[in-house]
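Minutes, project check-in
Item: structure for the 731-residue chain
Input as provided by the requester:
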Amino acid sequence: MNLEPVLNDAGVDEHTSDSRRLGPFRLLKRIGVGGYGAVYEALDERLNRTVAIKILHDPSPDARRRMLSEARASAGLEHPAFVKVLDVFESHSELALVMELVRGQTLSALREHGPLPLRRGLLLIRQIAVAMASAHAGGRVHADLKPANLMLSDNDQVRILDFGLARDLHPDSGPNPDSRDGSGTLAYMAPELLLGRGPHPGSDIYALGAIAAELMGQNRPYAELDGARLAHELIHGRRAPSAQLPEQAGPLRALIDHMCARVPEQRCATMTQVLAGIDEQLNALRTASDVRPPAPHRRHWPWLLTGVLVLAALWLGPLLTSGGTRWPDLSMQSDLDRAEQLLQAFDHQGHVAEAIALLESRLTAQPEHAASAANLAIAYCLRYASDDRDEAWLQRANTAADIALRADPQLARAQASKGWALEFQSRPAEALPFFQYALMLDPGDRYALLGQARAAARLGQDTLAAETLANAMQRHPKDRVFVDALGTWHFSHARYVEAESAFRQAIALDPLSVVSRSNLNAVLLRRDRPEEALAVLQDGLRLRPDGRLYSNLGTVLYALGRYAEATDAYRAAVSAERGSPNDYLRWANLADALRQLPGREQDALAAYRTTVSLLAPLLARNAEDVTLASRSALYRAKLQDCDASKQTAATVRAQPNLSVDVRFRLAQAAELCGAREQALADLVLASTQGLPLKTIAQEPELLALRRDPRYQTHILATFSPSASNEVRPNE
């Protein structure tokens, strides 16, 4: 059964004539139809929210089984791409499945406008692959992936519908009857399914390859065939599925053909392997764009999303322009000045949206204006770092920075923007020379100063980082951003008194900043003042909902042992509405809280798998980032993948100048994998560096270790007071 929760086609978008009710739901309009029933937009009058309801009229036993299978399958999926099932119930002779309502368009509707550009198509396919990797890791397959079952929501996130054919993966599973009865759409079915084999991860990989070929090609593979002829071609044919892709897509063709190999054993083995191939293609496209000369008279930027809310940059200074000696455009000067003022208060509600609109408008009028392109590149980096974490923003940042550099390589802002694009891709060693060159051109450039401090800190160059922050504070003593950065520096070095002072000063400079409140909360919790920490968060939430605040609220509740409430806060932090579904650390926090709740072990494991899948591409870009690597070691340990955890942890321990929090994560990973001696050694080093004893005492994973006599002799002699869970000041 393939009823689609949200379709905008005029033929099925029908308001109900009688405001019909079904239990507590009032049906508003029909938005999908199928052979077994219909899907309606409905109002849940108990909670005053709109939902989608799939209704089966006089369901047969087979249809009932399918719907219940979909409900169970969807309920076990943690990744935010999967449409959530909220309830299933019977009313009279009807069976109803209640789901979240997703507004947008299906990929099949999107494809009607023509083939997608390669980068755009790859980014969408990548979203699906990340979600399916999470499902496969949890022992689930979809079995009916196709464009009609994939929604592109209004915020440009792919949502995966209809797990009605999904099933558990068991070694002794026989063929799934649904794979042979026509329910799976033939064009996207792997050949082995047509021969009676049950769905498996490889069949989802095949379907995703066919979808990729359709989105970026002239049509779906073998579009001229149907029925028996199509089945014969899928099983016995020799034509490559990628044949209708454009000539310039040669490497992409190879990837799609690998995904769609007719013999399962010759196919990509896992979705993780698919992701690696997609990232390779995206990197190749980015490299190609880096060396392509700019079009001299281009008057539109198709890669810019006009009007989206973007967290932007933090620089306020004189307008620097490239070009000859003509008089400046005063209207452009006014727009850029206004954008700079808005960007200085980047975390005030609505400021960024207005600033981005102004910058994009200026670039439309003057596409090679270096200062505007540079500012926008930094804005895209900060958009990524906010409640989004979509890799597409980093691609856009890189492109904008390259345009700025080509337009005027002697502009300090252009050099700094390229450094930001690289540093946010976890490439600090490559970024640092751009910041240094920018500061040679303009020693006071805020972007270059902040970027150099961040990159140096990530590279363990403590002296350079400290000197850069001191220089920045001398030049910009009233700039809230640098005061926050100084507080974060103190926090990372366990100087909690100095960190608290800096964060309080930042709030005094900008009382409307939620970032500064989130940072102050982190240090108060580390200093074992949870009630004050909660009060600071509530002050921030009164300003506006923010994923950072919800995440830190969960951490306070976790430290207080209130794991159920912490779970609720972390769920808000990973939600699309109030937080970021793409932030791996928030998923890790959610998993930690679920791990402490009885009966939620499988949910916790699913959340850890999502964490690892989101972290993997970041770590792949910079395997030497000890923060990312130590977190990976810890999450692998919690998944009981101890070989991988120990290998990663050993690599981290070999690096110099490890921070307190890195050592604490290594200690937890060692303990979880049965290496008590190593855990104690890591804790001794962390305690010597300033780790509060309360932090160790509140960590549930170290309960058994704290009962070890060696804990008394090894640790208690080196402790310093105060505490917390994994708390992260905003960078």
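Outcome recorded: The mean pLDDT is 79.
No further action items on this chain.
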